[in-house]
Every structure is written in C-alpha cells, then in structure tokens.
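[audit] Reproducing an earlier prediction to check determinism. Same input, same settings, fresh worker. If the tokens differ from the archived copy the diff job will pick it up downstream; this log only records the rerun itself.
[audit] input (148 residues):
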Amino acid sequence: MEEMNRTESMKLLSEAHVGRLVVTDGKSPYVVPVYYALTEGSITIHTNKNGLKMKYLEKNPNVCFEVDEYSIDPRVARSVLAFGKARIVEDRKEKIAKLKALVDRYPAYHRSKEELREALSSERYYADCIEKAAIICIDVEKITGRRT
C-alpha cells in the first residue's frame, strides 16, 4: 500500500458514489453506508431525524467517513478515510443548498427528467424535505488515502 496525497484523496472522495459513516456513542461503533455530496470540502448527508445515527451524533459528534474503489484485480484499489466533527444543519438556506447538492449528485432517484426539473425548481419540495429529514455536515479536519 502507498499513501495518496490530500489532492488525490479529495478527488476519490468527490468521485465515489457511496460512503460509510462511522459514529460512536462512546461504547460501540456504528457503521452505515450513505449517499453523500461533497460541498466546499464538507461532506453532506441526508438522514432520518430519529435514526440511530442521530442518537449517536447527539452523544459524540466526532466521526470517520470512508470511501473506496476496488477492481476485480486485488492489486488495484484505493481508499480514503476522512475525520471530522459532524453538525446538524439548522439554517434553512444552508439546508436547501445542501439538499440541492444531494439532488444534483443523485438525479437517478427521481422517476423522470421532468420530475427532477420540477423538484429542483420547487421550493415546496425542499420545504417538505427539510421537515422530514436531518442534514448532517461533516467538516473534514483530516484525510488520509491509500492505494495498492
């Protein structure tokens, strides 16, 4: 394994489609795969307000986030670990901006292009999302990467 520099690590973090969020309540770790967006060096995640992630984050905001890329050839792989503090986004404007970043990154989750266009231009769509979900933002303090 050889180390990747920060630029290479951030590139993989921006390109991967699924990440793994690692949280702990101080007693046991909890790892969960998540969809995410990288915005201005921060990792944005959309989640249920009442889920286990939120309960753990209330107790301990220190998190780790992992992404990887692998191939059928075991000699070809890359992985990145990002460490930081998670915060719950409360500001309405920031929430909408973060939600838009997530929608832009994963357009396939909408049934059609028309639905996506409507969602992106609809304030009501974001208002509904804001009410139902929490937006977690992880400010990356440290990042490490490795490749084979």
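[audit] rerun output stored. Observation attached for the diff report: Residues 92-105 form the longest helix (14 residues).
[audit] end
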